[in-house]
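Protein of interest.
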Amino acid sequence: MTGANPEETPDRSASDSPLISRRALLRGMGAGATLLGSSWALDACGLKKSSGSSGKKITIGFVTPLTGPLAGFSVGDNYIVDTVRKSSAFSKGIKSGGKTYSVDIIVKDSQSDPNRASQVAKDLIATNKVDMIVVTSTPEVTNPVASVCESQGVPCVATVVPWESWYFGRGAKAGTTFNYTTMFFFGLKEFGETFIPMWDRVPGDKKVAEMFPNDADGSAFRNGWPPLLQPKGYTGVDAGAYADGTTDYTAMISKFKSEQCDIYLNGPLPPDFNVFWKQAAQQGYKPKLATVAKVLLFPADVVALGDLVINIATDAWWAPTMPYKSSIDGTTAQQLADSFTQSTGKQWMQSLGSTYSLFEVAQNAFTSASDPHDHKDVADKLRTMNYTGMCGPLNFGGGPVPGVGIMKPVGVQWKKGAGKFPYDLQIVDNSANPSVKVNGDLLPTNA
């Protein structure tokens, strides 16, 4: 077992990192549309290497945005890595094919930049000879990493990215599948099952203001929401695709006001929403219920908005009160959250659960494989995995496409904090996941 990797220390502060541009995103994702064919071609020609680290060691690469505008997603990631390293399942080695292998986890900072994410993935494969890469947090990070892994024939597991953004955003077509890359999270169907029941509880004109940027998530939302809205009697008002990093949203706000949009829906980068929401308040746009995706998921982003965040609703894929526990050592969701707060002094965040599950999935795949260095065997185990752990049941063979495991989120709202932290996240709707108990009242964002 190795100690902390130097790259676990952020390379630069979030304020020093540039906002992600559309051009950078496309460069970082690379020729996604050709990946399926290129990986098959390499296999057919016998050119693909099928082994990673040699001997009795398993090497796992972990790519996460420790710095940059997406850094809020990764606040708990180093804690989770340390926790996993100390667990007996990892510290005593992983058993695979009748042998026990020591485990090395190497952490790399994507700096919230697609190009950087792609490069560190290449480095992990070429230099560190990793047996698997696990990656988290938005298509800006997950997609370029997955694309590199697919082209190089290295098993990869991604999370915290809508599956449509991960799948179609990398050039896949309906009916096709990736050979080496898998993921778990949820998609537009689950967003609809989470958000629309909350909308139905707030009387209004059923017009939905849509703030979708010109990026992978924005494109997936723009294409996926109309089929969900129309059967429920809602009308979407799309103010147009905008560039990440936009600083003036006056035209968008004016359109939402003129259309009298009582519901607000989005999918932007966190800094962009911060600017938009403050401008909306200044210009008098006050939707009855704001439901946001990709933003206000974590305490750091919430504090930056102050009381403007109260009663904004979002989705939660993991919370301490969920009835889940670790497949590694039986730790409950509540115990994981409490331990994080006691150790760091920081408020729990839902990415704790998803990052933890990345390593559950990795351990499960390696223990199921006959040889942890056989990339194809490990990838095949990932694509058909069906287990229950820190994020609940995950069935990679039973999702919307092969290799995608679906989580069931709940609807939550930010409320004024009752304890040591200024704001608390309360579960206000469990329509999409009835196994989770509601512990708060759904209130209008603006009365």
Notes: Residues 1-50 have pLDDT under 50 and may be disordered.
